[in-house]
Design a protein that fits this description.
The protein is an alpha/beta fold. The chain has one domain: Alpha-Beta Complex (Spore Coat Polysaccharide Biosynthesis Protein SpsA, Chain A), CATH 3.90.550.10. Helix content is 39%, strand content 15%. The chain is built from eleven helices and ten strands. The strands form two sheets. Strands 3-2-1-4-8-6-9-7 form an eight-stranded mixed beta sheet, with helices on both faces. α1 links the parallel β1 and β2. α1 runs parallel beside α2 and α7 packs across α8. The protein is globular. 39% of the residues are buried.
Length: 314
């Protein structure tokens, strides 16, 4: 398959989920040939320190890869800064990267798909990224094809190239103010879900700190697309009580024995865009979240919900 893209894994304070992510990655056919880089963020309080240290104990004993390189931060950078800095450093050296967070289960053929797609679309600047996740509700439209594309990026197991990543403008205040006053541009940005512009606005107002919404926004500005597998190769296991979209969506993981993918017959359709919009459109609890952020109560309410959930599921 040629040179394999390095795998970049970002971890923090979730030892159980981190272990599950690593085990599923180890089961990939190409894992032993791949270089793994792990960025461990520093703790932000004493409560987090214990679990961060547990995570670091796990990652120091990882085997099953060509090489394993670990970066431990002494300070708490937060996910956005960690990803922007970590990916930027490695992509300059390797030209492309496969990026994971610590709450994903992966198909054994995830790395096959990612590396093949990176090689196939490398020269196509209108393909912004490769996603390993796909919403379950798309399969009925594209059941006879391996991949499809749409205008929204995804952060649940993804890959990209140096020229796309480094062309991003992470400062949305810099020459981007027109979208905050232009209703037409806001509508166009929300074509794949009406949560996009509210998240961008929250980023501008510093209610959130998200690399992903800025990544999506740059893709929008460049009129580019993300390639998705028809059947999802990624399952997010960290959603409940810890996600913008919550844990209320049905998901499945494709474990079909498929190591070869046909990327020549890429597919786009208005129905896909409509399904994406319906899938990601804000629900009541999302609107409530935006209100709580404005009031400065979001983090406290989120912590309380997680505590209640953990008690119920003991």
């Amino acid at each position: 398959m040629g040179n394999l893209a390095p795998i970049v894994l970002f971890v923090y304070n979730r030892p159980e989920l981190t272990l599950q992510t690593i085990k599923s990655l180890q089961k990939n056919i190409l894992s032993e040939q791949s270089d793994l880089f792990i960025f461990s963020d520093g703790w932000k309080n004493k409560e987090a320190k214990v679990k961060v240290e547990q995570v670091r104990k796990i990652i120091k004993n990882i085997k099953g890869f060509n090489t394993v390189t670990i970066y431990e931060s002494e300070q708490n950078k937060g996910l956005a800064q960690s990803i922007i800095e970590g990916v930027s450093t490695l992509i300059k050296k390797y030209g492309s990267v496969i990026v994971l967070e610590d709450d994903l289960l992966l198909s054994p053929y995830f790395l096959n798909y990612m590396n093949s797609a990176l090689q196939y679309y490398k020269g196509n600047s209108k393909i912004w990224s490769i996603s390993g996740y796909s919403p379950i509700l798309i399969s009925d439209i594209v059941s006879n094809k391996d991949v499809y594309f749409t205008g929204r990026a995804c952060s649940w197991g993804w890959a990209t190239w140096e020229d796309r990543w480094l062309s991003n403008n992470w400062d949305i205040h810099n020459n981007r103010e027109d979208i905050f006053t232009n209703k037409s541009k806001q509508k166009n940005f929300n074509k794949y879900g009406n949560d996009l512009f509210p998240m961008l606005r929250d980023q501008k107002n510093e209610h959130i700190d998200s690399w992903a919404i800025r990544w999506c926004f740059n893709q929008f500005l460049n009129h580019a697309s993300t390639v998705y597998p028809t059947e999802s190769l990624v399952l997010n296991i960290g959603l409940v009580g810890d996600s913008t979209h919550g844990g209320f969506r049905t998901q499945q993981l494709d474990i079909t024995e498929k190591s070869l993918f046909d990327f020549s017959d890429i597919y786009s359709d208005r129905k896909i865009d409509e399904r994406f919009k319906k899938y990601y459109n804000l629900k009541f609890y999302n609107y409530l979240g935006f209100v709580l952020k404005k009031l400065g109560m979001y983090k406290q309410v989120k912590r309380n919900v997680k505590r209640v959930y953990s008690v119920i599921n003991k």
